[in-house]
Amino acid sequence: LAELPVDFGGVGTTVQWHGLVTECSAVDYIVLGEGELTFSRLAAALDHGASPHEIADLPGMALRSETGPIRTAAPPLIENLDELPPPARYFDFQHLSLTRGCPGRCTFCGSPRFWSRRVRSHSTDYLVDQITLLVERGITFFYLSDDTFTLNAERVIELCRKIIHRGLSITWQAISKVSAVNDEMLRWMRKAGCVQISYGVESGSPDIRKRLCKDILHDQIPQAFERTVAHGILARAYFIYGAPGENRETIQETIDLIHEIKPLSIIFYILDIFPGTALYENFKR
After folding, report:
1. Which of 66, 99, 238, 241 has the smallest count of CB within 10 Å of its CB?
2. Rounded CA gap, 91 and 48, in Å?
3. Span 59-90, pLDDT tens digits
4. Contact at 8 Å (CB) between 159 and 198?
5. What is the DSSP letter of 84?
6. Intra-chain end-to-end CA distance of the chain, in Å
7. Which helix (H) or strand (E) holds 54?
8. Which of 31, 35, 79 is nearest to 55 (CA)?
9. pTM score, two decimals?
10. Maximum distance among all alpha carbons in the chain?
11. Cα-trace Rg, the chain
């Protein structure tokens, strides 16, 4: 086991690759950014006994060299996500995603840097095929883990229609934005088994939301919660406190908003300043 190469990947690894390569001798290779194609190329190269010099020619990698840590050129993003092998053929899981990326610019989130604010999507057939395979193995509850699942209403409704058409008896939850839902979409989501939507509200203070670059209007928040509950879906709220500018008054604004929207579930976070976020870069400056 000690001779097996160790590879890291993911958002945090991509951002902090230099420190990992420099300080963590147990890590041999780092896959940067979108990992499927890069990792498969790395595995093939290692299988064929490639030298470190040859591996250093692979795009999307970070590793040690005789002259120190190096980072290779970034590969292009996968434009047709349906070309990826369906993981449900090989694994059991509950977290699914229709899209990658988010157009948002929230300063506390790593998605803008990792995905460059671009949104790419699987076809709805690809996702329904995944669900079908998993349902056949007895898995019937799912998390739609897209950054913002409801960005494209037509695609969401198309997905829901296909879930219903195939007779898939499932329940699921999704993550959304209060400015990205409407009654028709919510109606179809409930018909297709959606039981919960989590909304990133973050704060009841317009000033705090502005500081966090949370691009939503205040009136959109109660409207989204009222509509969601009216369609029989649990409306959950995410709140962050401790942001720059937070004080007793802004916290009270959040409390007042909670009383107004009456979410059936709330998740509170103390603000974490993660590397790779705009907030982290601001604090460094």
Report:
1. 66
2. 26
3. 999 999 888 899 999 989 999 999 999 999 99
4. no
5. S
6. 43
7. helix 52-55
8. 31
9. 0.91
10. 63
11. 21
